[in-house]
């Protein structure tokens, strides 16, 4: 198995985008989806509907490699969806690239999915028993097959019925001949927002940064358990589930979302600064300079500096001309990967006590290499501070988590973790500190050991399902 150079980090499964009633729908879908590529780089695609047909252009790799602007879709109709994918459920193969195109009795249907269905195995087995033939191995096709088998005469009713059978954390956008639909899981674990272009065309996207990309404005979040139908009659929302407590993913705030995105109307950049401030209050350090791991940890590092009155500086710089994925099957090559990606600035860290801020710590392998870089550059001390609580449990809602055994904080004490990464001291933000910074409302914090909002199958139950 190949490893990323920074396989300490977690990866979003996907990003989705949709637009309706815009003569430049394909072009805007391309650029909107382009801005979501931090959520997935393994495959990408665009689907455009026009005059009774849906044309899909998709492939492996980044959007600019997978989709050629002008190849098939650029001059087509006024509605489109887009998708970027990083596989967590299903293999990284062409057949799993999205949008998926299906032919149902409602006509052609394209769908794009972010998240994970925890009851995927059971639904898939039931559908296969009924004769469904799946094209790929991802869980995204399940919704399409549920729709294909419905007896409901109206598409919205069919979608309503199908949505009620799904469990997990998910956001879908679906494109039919006549409409665009958005669907968000009952707990609102995975994000989905509704926006509007300057000309008034409705837009759906995983994050608000995709709205900014096409000069669209934010209208509102799609509600947990809501289906949004967009057609020539306008935008209509209908709840398929309404009693669950919302649990948006706390890790979207900690790391996943782009810093220029907003969630619940709040800036991700400012939230991360607040996480850094809380961290400084909870875990002060005797130091001369605060350094963040670029780019995702820089806001938290700035917040830590502000609250601790220790100067912030750019002690690590990132090489922007390296491919995002670095195939490094051996540990020593992974160290080379970190050196290719990051360099320490001697003038900032030499002969100084450094507070090193990272947004999260999953396996600890990359942190060890970064601390080594800082020491080689002359740092006297390295005090590592993590702007989120220890990552203790795997995510089952669409995030690529290392297997539970590889989660360093699950098996080691904080002191043992400090030894593992080679830090002079190590501290994490507390779960209370995180909740405090996140603000009111429920949040999913299952990976921080706070319980899964949607029940998951134990390994034994999964084995039982697979052996049936
Ligand atoms: S378990 Fe963690 S990563 Fe997964 S949805 Fe919940 S907060 Fe997000």
What tags apply to this protein structure?
468 residues; alpha+beta; Glutamine Phosphoribosylpyrophosphate, subunit 1, domain 1; seven-stranded antiparallel β-sheet; six-stranded antiparallel β-sheet; 23 strands; 29% helix; 25% strand; elongated
Secondary-structure map:
Blueprint: E1 11-12, E2 14-20, H1 25-34, E3 43-50, E4 53-60, H2 63-66, E5 79-85, E6 100-104, E7 107-117, H3 120-129, H4 141-149, H5 155-163, E8 168-175, E9 180-184, E10 193-196, E11 202-205, H6 209-213, E12 217-221, E13 226-231, E14 234-239, H7 250-256, E15 262-263, E16 266-267, H8 268-282, E17 289-292, H9 298-308, E18 316-318, H10 331-341, E19 342-344, H11 346-349, E20 353-358, H12 365-376, E21 381-386, E22 399-400, H13 408-411, H14 414-421, E23 425-428, H15 431-438, H16 459-467
Parallel strand pairs: 17-20, 20-21, 21-23
Antiparallel strand pairs: 1-22, 2-5, 2-11, 3-4, 3-5, 6-7, 7-8, 8-9, 9-13, 10-11, 10-12, 13-14, 15-16, 18-19
Helix pairs in contact: 8-9, 8-15, 10-12
The protein binds iron/sulfur cluster (SF4).
Iron/sulfur cluster binds next to helix 7.
